[in-house]
Amino acid sequence: MKRRWPIIVVLVVVAAIWLSRGGKEPVKEAVSPAPRPVAVSVEEVTSETLTRLLQVRGQVRPVREVNVVPKIGGVVCRLEADVGQRVAAGDVLLELEGDELRAQVRQAEAALTAARAGLEKLLAGPRPEELAQIEAAVNQAETNFRKAEANLERMEELHRQGIITKDQWEGAVTAYEVAEAQLNSAKQQLALALGDPRQEDLAAARAQVQQAEANLELAKLRLGYTVITSPMDGVVAFRYAENGGTVGVGTPVFTIVDIDRVIVNAQVTESYANRFRPGEQVDVRIDALGGQVFPGIITAISPMADQSRSFPTRIEIANPQHLLKPGMAAEVIFVTDSREAEMAIPARAVLTGGDVPRVFVVEEGVAREREVVLGLEAGELVEVLAGLAPGELVVVRGQNYLEDGTVVNITEQGW
């Protein structure tokens, strides 16, 4: 019995303790689990050159385009050029039939020869045989005059004596006057033959020569119009004439283009009208060439807006290999603003839900919210004027799930 007492005492003590706690098992205190980090991507705050762009659609055009139009109509007898052929200024493109015009040239040459001969004859004076004929005519006129004079004296005496009638006397007077006029005319012809030609005669003869020369020049000019040549260096873009076909005055027969340099006409809105100047360089992207970019130069900006309130702007591009074809769609890329930003971050890092732009930066594995002052936004980047420091890490993905003090896990730097 003595050995059982210690066991009984222990059991009583345990029972008393259990009863004092209400007969329940002891409760352990709950321990909160550690917060799970939020996965984020970050990028470093760096200095960048920020460039804001304006992209305007346009179309490639030749720097020069000329329609070749004949000055006379006719039948095509020879074709010397075709589409795609490179030609130089003065190269023959086609020729028209010109038989009738060549005959007109020969006719004008003959008329000029005759006019020159007439002027030379007037300047040289009469030939000896012509002068002899004129002198003989004067001698004959003098003889006739003397006979008429003697006859008039005899008839006057007979008329006084009443032997002849008045009509017979008047006939003698008339014969005398005619003989006298013929003598004077013959003497004048001799004087003209022996003296210098009159100035008015010389002027008329020279005018005839000049008119004949002009007619010949015009005939040759019209004959020259039968050969149609290229007015410039370039490439044949279109041919509208056929060998043996008829062409008319004012109807194009060829289109020649110069595509060693090409132009793109872009419509710049009024808000950017004063941003650009001729001579500035721009980029031109061509979709048909896989987005290839070509450097261009602004060569002209219209001082007046069109009906769409845009200002036509011409960009010229070197095209030595003729990769740029007229009619291709183009996108002109203008630089509207550019600056060196001491701090720049991706624009997607900025939260704009509140009154002030905010970003989250990561410091020792914890996200910290910062208010920032933004500057120029250019493409995917934005300038930060205040609120950050160079080299800090800003959250660019996952920031919508963060609060100030959230534990984060950087899964990727930049994406």
State the helicity in percent bands: 25-40%
Question: Radius of gyration from the CA trace?
Answer: 57 Å
Strand content: 35-45%
Overall mean confidence score, pLDDT: 86
- Alpha-carbon distance between the termini? 85 Å
Q: Order of strands across the biggest sheet?
A: 2-9-12-11-10-13
Count of strand segments: 19
> How many separate helices?
5
Oligomer: single chain
Unreliable stretches, pLDDT < 50, 5 or more residues? 1-19
Order of helices and strands: HEEEEEHHHHEEEEEEEEEEEEEE
Give me the secondary-structure category. alpha+beta
Main sheet properties: 6 strands, antiparallel, barrel
Identify the overall geometry: rod-shaped
Any overview of this molecule?
The chain has 415 residues and is α+β, with helices and mostly antiparallel strands. The chain is built from five helices and 19 strands. The chain has helices spanning 5-20, 99-124, 128-161, 166-194, 199-224; strands at 38-44, 46-68, 74-79, 86-87, 92-96, 227-229, 234-239, 246-247, 254-269, 281-286, 292-301, 310-318, 329-346, 358-363, 366-371, 373-378, 381-386, 393-397, 408-413. Strands 2-9-12-11-10-13 form a six-stranded antiparallel β-barrel. Strands 6-5-3-8 form a four-stranded antiparallel β-sheet, with no helix packed on it. Strand 14 and strand 15 (366-371) form a beta hairpin. Helix 2 packs antiparallel against helix 5 (199-224) and helix 3 runs antiparallel to helix 4. The protein is rod-shaped, with a radius of gyration of 57 Å.
